[in-house]
Amino acid sequence: MGRRNKRRRLNFVTALFALLFIQNICFSQTKIFGSIKDNTNKLYSVSIILKDSLSNSIIAYSYSDVNGNYEIETGKLGKYNLVFSSLGYETKTIPLYITKEQKDYKVDIVLKDKPMDLDEVIIKADLPMTIKEDTISFKTKFYVKGNEQTVEELLKTIPGININAEGTIKIGNQEIEKLMIDGDDLFERGYKILSKNMPAYPIEEVEVLKNYSNNRLLKGVEESNRVALNLKLDEKSKRIWFGNIETSIGNDSFYQLKGNLMNFGKKNKYYFLTNLNSIGYNATGDIENLIRPSRRNEPSSIGESQSVNSLLNLSPKNLNFKESRTNFNNAELVSLNAIFNPTEKIKIKTLGFFNWDETDFFRNSIDIVAVNNTSFTNTEDYQLQNNKRIAFGKLDVTYNISKTKMLEATTKYNNGDFNDNSNLLFNGNSTVENLQHQNTLFDQKINYTNKFKDKKVFLLTGRFIDEKTPQNYAINQFFYQDLFPSNTTANNVSQQSTNQMQFAGINAHLLDRKDNGHLLELQLGNEFRKDKLQSTFSLLENNTVLEQPNGYQNETNYQVNDLYLKGKYRLKIKDFGIVGKLDIHQLFNRLENNNVSNTQNPFFINPSLGFDWKINDRNKITSSYSYNTTNAKVLDVFSDFVLTGFRSFSKGTGGFNQLDASNVVFNYQLGNWSDRFFANTFIIYSKNHDFFSTNTTIQQNFTQAEKILIKDREFISVNSKLDYYFKFISSNLKVDLGYTKNEFKNIVNNSNLRLVTSNNYNYGLELRSGFKGILNYHIGTKWLTTEIETTINNFRMKHEPNFLIFLIIFFLNKPN
Predict the structure, then answer these.
(1) Shortest CA distance to 207 belongs to which of 167, 161, 274?
(2) Series of mean pLDDT values for 10-residue runs along the chain (816 residues)
(3) pLDDT at position 793, please?
(4) CB under 8 Å to 119, separation ≥6 — which residues?
(5) Rounded-to-integer distance, Cα 568 and Cα 219, Å
(6) What pLDDT is recorded for position 660?
């Protein structure tokens, strides 16, 4: 068994690193490449055509990129002419004799100026794709197949744009920042509301914006590798009201109703949408991306990670099935959005979002436990219903004081009301849970930007957040007789809790881009957070409170004041960059648990060092190392037990803690996302020098978990993706290989500290056609294998591989 596992792991590693060299096979064709320039500059968008020397027929064609480089591949041999042409330059023809002995031909040329008197002649070139500096434009009419209903379905036809099952849009392997319409953004990271609902037919062009800056005054100053998408409408869809409505009804009362109404003018834009369905379709994506669009590690990003985590959560587990097959819903969505430009200097964006949903979940399971002479079997028949109502509003005001100064203000308010009910048939006994909870969020952010010199920018940002999440939880059973033996008449329990957070912060940020390309960043700031956690656990007989036991009530006040200075310097040497960072933190902590107060003033430094190397246009390497110290959160420091599930109790450490960790990241990219061949390997290694684990007591009817601080655990993840387009069969091949190893240490039933190691392997292979006819196919397979090992009794468990094999054949109606 051990030898077979070692052989399998060796085969996996061999296959993984073989991806980095598979281009040797893919490049079995002849490659013609080189650079194009005039007397002074490199030329982009030059047409390169490979023609047969006798018939003059076109064998292959390409265009030069923004650096003046080009590449053409062909599998044919013989005599050919390589023709270079561009408006304003003389056409140049280079004869080539291609033989099977020589696989690479490098042809560098210089084009001469050609004076032209066009008079009244107008020349227009309608190309599928154009490249201009950091913008790549795709004309949609060259890519659509005719069955695209939504923007999401349209984007799936664009080369290099990948959309997963949840609707996340990526350029290559990087998620986009936003999805704009004619340069204006409505939803930020909540773009799925737009992509999943807006009709596709008005979209004339899709622009990929590389090196994107969310702040226009930081363009060309900050070091940005972000990407965004801009949808350009056709002229007939501008400055008019238009939209669509779609409805369908099926058996068992399944229904769907979608509607869009919009008007995109030059000064004002309006987009109203609604989606009502009971077919399991998620029209919103992850709503948290709309309410809290994360912008960590970029200028003016203060307070991005501040939120409240709830003690209790009744939600269905991920079953690794397609969401629409397990999401029994009744969803109603209304979104009202507008952009106003009352003057040339002021832009106002308003967003109103309302979502009602009712979902049902069902699960049957059997749990067998055998630990330290304790063994039992639990059976469950579980039904869960979640009801939610979310109202969210946002107001963005941008005041362009001048060309170099800007003031931005964002106000957000969110109100969520949730009612969750479950019925669990546990070992033959019915247990009913009810959780009523709310979320109220107020968020105000103001940012001032001053580009006081061409490459120097100063930002001043302030933010205030107030969030509250009260919860009321009740169970109609009493499972805790062993914990509370004196309460013989108790027959149900309840817990009321409130977790409230207030955050206030200010940050001053200076960016200085040097003439040689180096970048200096300095930040000085202060962040204050105050948490208040209250929980009351009660034992009841019917509706009468019998006892609120000691050790199960919490009154915690936790304050953290973080005064920090951050420095970052990027040293650029041609195509090689070195980035050094140093973050200095002085914390002032105050903790009050059940009227007992303590203070702490820790000081720590977080350093990091990284590099990025663009070996050439097709090979890129990035890597970094960081050492981080983080402060404990409020859910880590409370002192008494709280109920976190119908038979689960948990409590914090009751004191201050700081956690240390080291991280190493390595990324190798072969090719570019728009090339025929693209491969990407990502490796992450992390070591937690300190981490929170649990000392857990497991009984048949309940568990108690107490947080403890433990030393040393490791995590490693390796993932490789490969994309290759086969011209001769007009199909795209995708290969996905991954390996993850995760360690965890804990104590169970007062045993010795045990190490639990999880090994996960995933493999995926897909082939999807792009025929111009009506018939297309999509075939593939996905596999997942999990192994779990523990040092207690040399326990080892292996899950048989979960796999999916699919073949989809579909017919398309081509547009007129």
Answers:
(1) 161
(2) 43 42 49 85 82 75 81 84 84 86 85 65 64 85 81 86 84 85 87 87 91 90 89 89 87 85 88 88 75 80 89 76 70 91 93 91 81 76 91 95 95 95 84 94 96 94 96 92 89 94 97 91 96 95 93 95 96 91 97 93 96 89 95 93 91 93 94 79 94 90 91 94 82 90 89 88 85 75 86 60 64 48
(3) 58
(4) none
(5) 18
(6) 95
For residue 611, the one-letter residue type is F
Amino acid at 530: K
Indicate the pairing of strand 456-475 with strand 429-453: antiparallel
Q: Are strands 161-163 and 228-233 parallel, antiparallel or unpaired?
A: unpaired
If you write DSSP's letter for every residue of 176-229 in order, what string do you get?
A: -S-EEETTB-SSGGGTHHHHTTSBSTTEEEEEEE-S--SSGGGTTTS-----EE
> What is the distance between the alpha carbons of residues 216 and 197, in angstroms, rounded to a whole number?
28
Residues 6+ away with beta carbon under 8 Å from 648: 702, 703, 705
Q: What separation, in Å, do the N-terminal and C-terminal C-alpha atoms of the chain show? A: 61
User: What pLDDT is attached to residue 727?
Assistant: 75
User: Which is nearest to 358 in space by CA: 330, 384, 383?
Assistant: 330
Of 105, 86, 104, 113, the C-alpha closest to 94 is 105
Rounded Cα distance, 663 and 798, in Å: 28
Contact partners, residue 236, CB within 8 Å, separation at least 6: none
Strand partners, 507: 461, 525
Three-state SS string over 744-766 comes to EEEEECCCCCEEEEEEEEEEEEE
Q: Which of 703, 597, 725, 727 is nearest to 641 (CA)?
A: 703
Degrees (nearest 5) of the Cα angle 194, 467, 650?
105
- What lies within 8 Å, CB to CB, of 505 at 6+ separation is 302, 303, 462, 463, 525, 526, 527, 528
The amino acid present at 433, given as its one-letter code, is: E
Tokens representing residue 632 in the block: 């404990």
> Cα 125 vs. chain centroid, distance in angstroms?
37
d(CA 188, CA 71): 36
pLDDT for res 167: 84
